[in-house]
Write a structure and sequence with these properties.
With 249 residues, the chain is an alpha/beta fold. It has a single domain, classed as 3-Layer(aba) Sandwich (Rossmann fold). Helices cover 39% and strands 17% of the residues. The chain is built from 11 helices and 8 strands. β3, α6 and β4 form a beta-alpha-beta unit. 37% of the residues are buried.
Length: 249
């Protein structure tokens, strides 16, 4: 994987205005993993990821910290993928620039063998209840702000696969609306939010079950409220080894 961000993509990776929202949508076969890593690289290591640092705007200051939350992938996945991009997430965590909340392992995977010590910047969700999720994420945001040295440190929130909570917390009444309220609370406490959601046609067009309706409502509401929407889809001509899909603004 090239460590250089494509010039056409660079403007979308700069740190935008406060409380803004960027929505990344994916379909089966065209995931947002690589794009999330590009955002992480731009935020945590802007000098090496940008091909022209002189073109950076004042808002693209490297002073932002990142809270990465994933409900679909664990920390080793992002760490290994980021290393291919030339970004060391462990180093960013040790410097207080990164915190990771794992919404997958402790909830849905078998417990790991052994008692390996967990790094200070890593934490796990132990309950899919939305109130517990809210508490853990808000605490993580405040912790990052304190680590930055002031209570006003810029924190960028990256949430990967939030729509998975619709299924895992589906026993809660009105889970879709509660998720939207949770996002609003988090956006008020962070400088910028990057959200990834699945937007496959069967999930947003054929709404027969309550789960499908909740998912479609979440995707459409965030798309309407987002400042930037970047959608990934497969190539019309089929797959290619060096091209994973098409980026649509």
């Amino acid at each position: 994987m090239s460590t250089r961000i494509p010039p056409l993509l660079e403007p979308y990776l700069l740190l935008p205005r406060e409380t803004s929202l960027t929505l990344l949508t994916s379909v089966l076969g065209a995931s947002t993993n690589w794009l999330v890593v590009r955002y992480l690289s731009s935020l945590l290591n802007p000098s090496s990821s940008s091909s022209s640092a002189s073109h950076a705007t004042p808002s693209s200051s490297p002073s932002a910290s990142v809270l990465l939350v994933s409900f679909l992938r664990d920390y080793p996945f992002f760490r290994d993928l980021s290393l291919k991009q030339g970004l060391d997430l462990d180093a960013a965590g040790r410097k207080g620039r990164l915190a990771f909340v794992d919404g997958l392992s402790s909830l849905y995977l078998p417990p790991p063998v052994g008692t390996e010590k967990t790094a200070a910047w890593l934490s796990n969700l132990t309950s899919p209840r939305l109130e517990d999720v809210r508490r853990v994420l808000l605490d993580a945001v405040e912790s990052l702000k304190r680590t930055a040295g002031t209570g006003e440190g810029k924190v960028v929130l990256v949430i990967d696969g939030l729509d998975a909570l619709i299924a895992t917390a589906s026993d809660e009444e009105g889970v879709g609306q509660k998720l939207q309220e949770l996002l609003l609370d988090l956006r008020e406490q962070t400088h910028h939010t990057i959200l990834t959601l699945s937007a496959d046609a069967p999930l947003v067009s054929n709404q027969t079950t309550r789960l499908e309706k909740e998912h479609a409502a979440l995707v459409l509401s965030q798309a309407h409220g987002a400042d930037v929407v970047l959608s990934l889809r497969l190539l019309d001509t089929g797959t290619a080894k060096d091209v994973s899909g098409v980026l649509i603004e």
